[in-house]
Specification:
By secondary structure, the chain is an alpha/beta fold. Helix content is 44%, strand content 12%.
Length: 335
Amino acid sequence: MPSNTWTNIRAIKSSGEIIPFIDDIITVNPKMESIKDKLGRIARTTSNVLIVGETGTGKELIAQAIHNLSDRFGKPFISLNCSAVPASLWESTLFGTNKGSFTGSEDMPGLFEQAEGGTLFLDEINSLDMNLQVKLLKAIEEKTIRRLGGKKNIRLDIRVISATNEVPDILLAEKRLREDLFYRIGVVQIDLPNLMERKEDIEVLVDHYLNFYNNTMNVIIDGVQEEVLQCFKSYPWPGNIRELKNAVETAYNHVQSSKITLDDIPGRIRDYTEAPMAENNSPHVDSLKDAVQQYEKEIIVRQLKNTNGKIAESARQLGISKQLLKYKMEKHKLR
């Protein structure tokens, strides 16, 4: 089915639970609209997907949309935050156990088996140590697992969608992500912009959350004051969309009129002010993050000029890998 046919569909499980499809990705941002447009095509295949984005940018929502748009929709969608599982329990959690494999163990299917026919979503995959990455790679490549204490391999039909809140190029350069695992899980890579890169979405997201909480809280709000909206647009949102949703929910617990005021939103957002830049010849930047990025760009430009554009030599003198320097050059549009 063409991807645009899916955009107005919402599925209902036999339990009556409404499962979000692509319309639940609220945006007017061109980059996000492009990502939404691609999801239907990605959903048709069985390729592994890697979603890259900062914490709170909606990585699991994207993973769910891919699953729900695919022919695996009627099968399980199993989600795991890899950072939440102790290393000692990771294998049993993913691969399951057989009775007697260790004291107190029972016959228990792991998440790979539970996802049979469907999708396994592994969030924060960058938190896994190298030893576990090897075992994960083997399971994904061979599409088989063996329970702890088991004597036979179990063949599986699942799609693996992974996510990381760090840039893969940096993880690779710093040897925190195996290259072979990256190539296996990242056949398709989706890069999600943070909320500061899609400021035009702040207003539509606020409207969406107002509608959501008007239907789930015992409070009805007509809107937000203009001062609140301007405050939201100037705040840097380190927690991204998740933090924005939290801010609106907080307001519902404090509001005393039909509109959300500055007094109703979290103090860290209300009291945020952009630090003034010292007077110099540097271009104007809006925040500390922007200032650091601008300074980094100037250093790279100066170093490349000193080496006549030799990337390897520039990387050596900067004390970083050639791969990391290339990534930073692309980020700053120097290539």
